[in-house]
Amino acid sequence: MASKFETPQVRKFPIIPKLENSATSHLSPFKSKEEFQSSLGYPGELVENWQEKAIDKMGDLLGKYRSLRVYLDSCIQCGACTDKCHYYQGTKDPNNMPVGRQNLMRSVYRRYFTLPGKYFPKLVGAKDLTKEVLDDWYSYYHQCSQCRRCAVFCPIGIDTAEISMAAREVMDSIGVGQKYCNEIIGKVHKIGNNLGLPEPALADTLEGLEEDVLDDTEIDVKFPLDVKDSEVLLVTPSADFFAEPHVDGLIGYAKVFHQAGISWTLSSHASEAANFGMFIGSYDNMKKLAMRIREAALELNVKRIVFGECGHAWRVAYSFLNTLAGPFDFLDPRYPVPQHICEITNGLIDQNVLNFDKSANDDMTLTYHDSCNVARASSMGGIMGGQFTIPRKIIQTVANNFYDMDDETIKEKTYCCGGGGGLLTDDLMELRVKGALPRMEALKHLIEEKGVTHMAAICAICKSQFSKVFQYYDLELDQIVSLHQLVSNALIMNKKEV
Amino acid sequence: MSFVTILYAAMFYFAAAILFIGLAYRVYEYAKIPAPLKIPTPPAPMTQKGVAIRIFREVVFFESLFSATKWTWLFSWIFHLALLLAAFRHLKYFTDPVWFWVSFELVQVAGHYAAYLMLAGLLGLLARRVFVDRVRYISSPSDYLILVLIIAIAGSGLMMKWFPSDILAIKLFFVGLLTFNFSELPSDVVLLIHLSLVIALMIIFPYSKLLHAPGLFFSPTRNQVDNARSKRHVANWAKRMESTK
């Protein structure tokens, strides 16, 4: 297991840390085994002529992704991004400065793909792709959660996520894959969800939830699975089926659908919203995973697709699903495809379909964590900034006590939880704890100033990450809550069956 | 024709060819490579017009940089503004008759004082590169050299105030290059240094980070419309993977 490490000090006034060379060069996630690699179409171990293969793959990607090509060319090395990454702030490692991370690939790009790099490598900082460089790639491209905070501040809009995705794709193609991501993608291909939860187990879990809700509320709220001709196909992260506080969010969605009289179903074929194909930069894998959702929607003959609380899933859903698995002309054209559960709840609030007893959440003073991929890679409600306003509006509709964290740490400037982008694995616990620092600082300041007790989020990774790292910062794991858990607490249910 | 005139005429044609063909080729490459996925960053406009406004604000005000770091913004904005003003002043060497607005006193005077502004901005950027540990860490020799090169261009240009050349002859030389009606270039040392440095800058432009200029216009995080749900966006290479289902 990971060696002992110190939790970073929570600073009263965050200042930019001094560099500590190689502070986290020892952090690398477990490598993927042959069986997981081959099921995704990648070599099982480092191939013999890996250098040549890697450069070929880079050339291939440079011709396919304008972002990669333009971003490798255009960096001015101005330093605007250097202090913007949560991993840099938490680890002080210069390779965790966004430009430092990018330069690991940019130096290789310059060496093999540009004239000055071929003839004057030292002058322009070009480097051969050696084994040491590959090791640095593996280490530091798995210390990027692809949260895009740096891209917001870059004068050219250079997005480090594009580069780290490409790097992971190059490494996979020569047999150097990450265990956590690739094992999970394999499970989705084989079983249908990240947790490897087969259909009977899922049906069982949902039945249990129905009993729990019935015991709690005396109302027969259904959790339908594979019910044909439903109005809505709900696609949600599989953590929603059992993890805390995720499952309380799922109960919230079910209550909203029940109360609004919208028929809905989950699918055992597409029982996972998350699309880890994005983390490894693989268009092919991302498309295959997205196609399950299309297939499920066709098979179940639904009219709309709704996504549960999941940050990266919502990015793929909002920004990529139409591209990867569209066109969705077989669905009801009155609704965007897909919709977010917050858009559903928000719409029902606007139509006065839902009534709330706000005092049910009075035991909490709340704040809201903008999950990085919702904040910086998607929107909601068809309006600019809807991804910021809609969740806040819902919280303020169902609860009395709400405060925002510091402006520099929310909305488009939000900090990643520290576990996004395929890093939510125990073998990277040191990185996760350190990367959580800026969010923990903003939260702790608000706890001191306003007496905030709980933080709501709409991302399965954020929820899992916080419930794990909170203890390192002297917080309780149940201080992270699902947004629809708050909805669930306050929603006034009719006893009468719909 | 003196040797100096022939040499500089040849070098300017060569450098201009590298600059314009090189830059055109880069732009062609950037335009040809597809952006397969929608990746705009917030605040992401939902219309093409909104995107145009966003790019305008980035190009003119360096809005993102302003939100990132005030010092770097200040130095680089001053430098780029001064570069523009100096370029306006220099148009008098290339236009015959001189465009009416270029001959305005204000344009000419602003272009002169721009040299001081430019030096101030560039020295600020250089100081940041030397003294801020994070920026020093990411700097390669070429990052310093480009700054030094532009500082030397501004400095040598400013020196011509004290080591003047025959302005009319310079103008005839450049207009001659443009119209193939060649004329002698004065062989004053400061002038020749200034011109040599400009030639060097023209040559390295399409091979260096100076590509950030066209790059900004091709940056998908900034130039894409946020409309993925309502408008299907598929790259040509991805169309091959489309199934019939």
Note the topology.
The complex is a heterodimer of chains A (498) and B (245).
Chain A (H helix, E strand, L loop, with lengths): L33 H6 L10 H15 L1 H9 L11 H6 L6 H16 L1 H5 L1 H4 L6 H10 L8 H5 L6 H14 L5 H12 L8 H19 L14 E4 L10 H15 L3 E2 L17 H18 L3 E4 L3 H15 L13 E2 H10 L15 E3 L3 H6 L8 H13 L30 H7 L1 H14 L3 E4 L2 H10 L10 E3 H8 L8
Parallel strand pairs in A: 1-2, 1-3, 3-4, 5-6, 6-7
Chain B lengths: L2 H30 L15 H14 L1 H6 L1 H21 L14 H27 L1 H6 L2 H19 L7 H13 L9 H16 L7 H6 L2 H4 L12 H4 L6
Description:
- The complex is a heterodimer of chains A (about 500) and B (about 240).
- Chain A has two domains: about 35-175, Fumarate Reductase Iron-sulfur Protein, Chain B, domain 2; about 185-490, no CATH class.
- Helix content of chain A is about 50%, strand content about 5%.
- Chain A has helices at about 35-40, 50-65, 65-75, 85-90, 100-115, 115-120, 120-125, 130-140, 150-155, 160-175, 180-190, 200-215, 245-260, 285-300, 310-325, 340-350, 370-375, 385-400, 430-435, 435-450, 460-470, 485-490; strands spanning about 230-235, 265, 305, 340, 365-370, 455, 480.
- By secondary structure, chain A is mainly alpha-helical.
- Chain A is globular and about 75 Å long.
- Chain A contains 22 helices and seven strands.
- The mean pLDDT of chain A is about 95.
- In chain A, helix 2 (about 50-65) packs across helix 10 and helix 18 (about 385-400) runs parallel beside helix 22.
- Chain B is mostly helical and about 240 residues long.
- Chain B folds into two domains: about 5-40 and about 70-205, Fumarate Reductase Cytochrome B subunit (Up-down Bundle); about 40-70 and about 210-245, no CATH class.
- Helices cover about 70% and strands about 0% of the residues of chain B.
- The longest helix of chain B has 30 residues, at about 5-30.
- The model of chain B has no long low-confidence stretch (mean pLDDT about 95).
- The chains are: A mainly alpha (about 500), B mainly alpha (about 240).
